[in-house]
Sequence to fold (1248 residues):
Amino acid sequence: MSLAIGVDVGGTKIAAGVVDEQGTIIAELRKATPANDTDKVAALISSMAKELAAEHGATSIGIGAAGFVDDARSTVIFAPNLAWRNEPLKDRVEQATGLTTVVENDANAAGWAEARFGAARGANSAVVLTIGTGIGGAIISNSQLVRGSNGFAGELGHFIIRPDGRRCGCGLRGCWERYGSGSALVTEARELSTLDPNLGARMLELADDNPLNITGLHVTQAAKEGDAAALDCYSTLGTWIGRGMAALAAVLDPDVFVLAGGVSEAGDLLREPTIKAFKKQLTARKFRPEPQVLMAQMGNKAGMIGAADLSR
Amino acid sequence: MSLAIGVDVGGTKIAAGVVDEQGTIIAELRKATPANDTDKVAALISSMAKELAAEHGATSIGIGAAGFVDDARSTVIFAPNLAWRNEPLKDRVEQATGLTTVVENDANAAGWAEARFGAARGANSAVVLTIGTGIGGAIISNSQLVRGSNGFAGELGHFIIRPDGRRCGCGLRGCWERYGSGSALVTEARELSTLDPNLGARMLELADDNPLNITGLHVTQAAKEGDAAALDCYSTLGTWIGRGMAALAAVLDPDVFVLAGGVSEAGDLLREPTIKAFKKQLTARKFRPEPQVLMAQMGNKAGMIGAADLSR
Amino acid sequence: MSLAIGVDVGGTKIAAGVVDEQGTIIAELRKATPANDTDKVAALISSMAKELAAEHGATSIGIGAAGFVDDARSTVIFAPNLAWRNEPLKDRVEQATGLTTVVENDANAAGWAEARFGAARGANSAVVLTIGTGIGGAIISNSQLVRGSNGFAGELGHFIIRPDGRRCGCGLRGCWERYGSGSALVTEARELSTLDPNLGARMLELADDNPLNITGLHVTQAAKEGDAAALDCYSTLGTWIGRGMAALAAVLDPDVFVLAGGVSEAGDLLREPTIKAFKKQLTARKFRPEPQVLMAQMGNKAGMIGAADLSR
Amino acid sequence: MSLAIGVDVGGTKIAAGVVDEQGTIIAELRKATPANDTDKVAALISSMAKELAAEHGATSIGIGAAGFVDDARSTVIFAPNLAWRNEPLKDRVEQATGLTTVVENDANAAGWAEARFGAARGANSAVVLTIGTGIGGAIISNSQLVRGSNGFAGELGHFIIRPDGRRCGCGLRGCWERYGSGSALVTEARELSTLDPNLGARMLELADDNPLNITGLHVTQAAKEGDAAALDCYSTLGTWIGRGMAALAAVLDPDVFVLAGGVSEAGDLLREPTIKAFKKQLTARKFRPEPQVLMAQMGNKAGMIGAADLSR
Fold:
């Protein structure tokens, strides 16, 4: 049976695992990321992979990392959390390990895991939304990952959903992730609580009475208790997410949307307003079967599992 | 050498041709469409294909038609210009001709021709916009047509670019094609000329002084003469098209956008404002090579050629 | 008892009447407007006024006309329906008649009639919306007409309610009257019926099956019959009107809004969606008594009556 | 010569002055506001006024306070910074002092000072915008203050300039003051610096490298030094202010807009982008003389001076 190694490179730790053809993790290692030293990061990835390969016999390595990865799946052009700039990561790791290596954007890797083994299993066409601080995404079409001509496809957080809207780090205004991400949820909750402390009382209580201390967890806790203000924040968030999904449905016609990432752990708090807005703005409803909207199933190992599978 | 038959079924005529592997049309037939009689349409398509096949030896048939075609590329679920509702067109034509047949949405077929033989030749990833009365589209990814799980992918005209905007025939409001199509150009020109007849004087002159008579051709002619009002209409149109293209670039990261369809015949009148708006709203400009924006090269036979090729 | 003459100058006819202090018309004359000859228009107004004054003894003349009237209430700076450009109308009529004359914008005159004798009688502060082809308005504050420093106050149709929205004859985009007027109602109905002829079937039937023939009367008739599409058009119209009224309430805090003009004849068809949207967007609802929203009571003689009263 | 007492009641201090008919302050007193005790506030206002009146002989008292003041100018219905709820302030102070007293909203009082003695001196019609944490305003028409039927006119910060925009404390979304106030400036600067720390480097440096520490003063300082990011924030602010002013010009046709309040101290940093956007969105530019846009001249004593004058 074929085994592959998946590596998930984060800003604080690196996790590597041996993954079988069913997406099951056989063995796993974790180390702290050597910050700001790209040579050490490549060396550490390589040594972790070699150790696992020596023990389990894997024949390829897939590496998932936040950032822009080129279309040859070999060079990290830019990474927000690491010092990589045009880093030839594939070559470095292949030279050190002797194993075939591919590099992939982390949201693509995680989305691929959902498509192969998780919520979108068996779908010909799927969109996996990773909703965290921003919105990342993976698009599956014809049962393949859509990578685009530069490897930048699936930058779902950055189409403009609100002309002339909130400023975005990408240089534009009104990008989807400024309205449909965990950060947007927190912005909403802080604004509400600053402007109307009575309405936001429960969230303020959880945050030591300082609106700037409110986190996503506070909003989620209050919403789960039934607090009207927190529910309103989730409703606003879901409405924006659903609107963007409807746009993607017109373009891509997927069988299924998968909601993944930290914010998706809110479950129905998120899913219900999302589906409501999605249905409302879906084109050609009379003719098309409605895409399913499912919660991710692969958890936070999705990136490792997907990266391993993509290296096969 | 392998020959295939391409059929372009329109509301008023049916054109069929024998197409070689380089996309060259070897022979061609045209007949009037038997209106509102789906049996006769299928019979006519079949007899035209048989006639061409008998003479030239083709081994497959590709049919392009406006409307929703299922993911098996066999049934026309709904066609706006013909009486087809859940029409099993592939089966009918295969039974009558004995030749392998596929059915494809016409914008997909035309887009495929551009990807195989025209402006997007050689692209791994491309978006072809067919800008006519509405906006149709074809998406090429991994050198394949993106069809979606129901065959409805590429309904590019129907993502919402303007929340709460102009009413659309699809039941939503603010769809891209209500702002970025030939109809939108005409709406704009008529509004302008009604509201400010001095400004719209040249277009009114061309239209017998009745704003409701203004057509796209009048706008184009006036714009070519340098008329400020007509240029303004094209600028508005291009701005909306460019905005939508920027959204698609974030999602799909194509090498190339191809502007096709009747409106694209305006050439630089359309292309310049489109590119300007596109660049302005393109995310991650620092990192990505900019997609090219090219005019279509295959002309109005693109649907026939693409359909033929897709049947191989 | 004091009598005054009110003159309503339209593009096709001139109506003059003798009006008493209770706003009652004692006598009335009507003549066709001498088109495009400003000398003849001034002469005709003067002769009609003299005839009425000779018979009834009035001591002043008030003239209402569409267009921009200067703050001295004497010169028509620009009139859309007549050839007046910087026309010294007050001086001409005073010289010809020997009677004190004032000129006033027609929406101001009609609004003043509502404030003095009609729906806004007794209000310290009121806004009268004249909803016809466009939106005209009159603002009453401290029981006086608000004329502004150039006589141009109350151009209510031209604040931007929709950034980057529909083109307006005034040179901007997104003006309120492009969404909240009778023209907007017709635009909406024509669009709906073009895009979805099934939905618009009843309106099309009334308009000889040509969407471009649909008029406001057709929409109103269909709506009164309960036709869903026509009711939808009225709902859209009222929503925009209500939104704009909420903006005006924040600025002016009137006791009452009066809906006047041709479109207001639709009564509750218009009033209900208007009030719904108005309440939803009214600021400080907790603290303020809600302004009343009333239908005009003075009918199409309002301009004549108001102009007469303003001349006192 | 007639003297009047003006009292400016803030959340932390009360300032009272004797003001002559030219708006000159003859004498002045300041005391800390007795927090949360409305009886003590009324008593302190009264004693300060009596002391000044005894010494200088004033015959009336004008009190300016943040909040909603009824149309009789006697009761404070709601004050955001004090415990007043339906406080009969006029009666209390008249009983204690024996002097005729009027109560006025503070932005109205300050605006009135500009209209009588400051930047809008001599204007028949003016709008004074007090741009601080929010946007307050005063409208002058026919040389009188426009108070509305409940005393709530001039709530200029709360018309909706951005449908479905930022949440506002008043319960709506998209109110003008959420885009055109000092708070909006700070929100913009914090967002920019969080999302793009390189771009926001100078503002971050001034704020101990924490975007949440950025204040309006930091933005102003950086902008005065020529920092591009800070200038961008001011440009965004001015654009929104100018848009709102254009809406008010269509409604009110003032001779002059006066920019007052803390943010107006930025001078040309604010005025230039404001005027640019204002001109761009002003209706009927061909016909109307453009209103002037001036900076306030009365400084932070404007409220006291205006209140005094309004009591005459």
About this structure: Chain C touches chain D through 51 residues (CB under 8 Å).
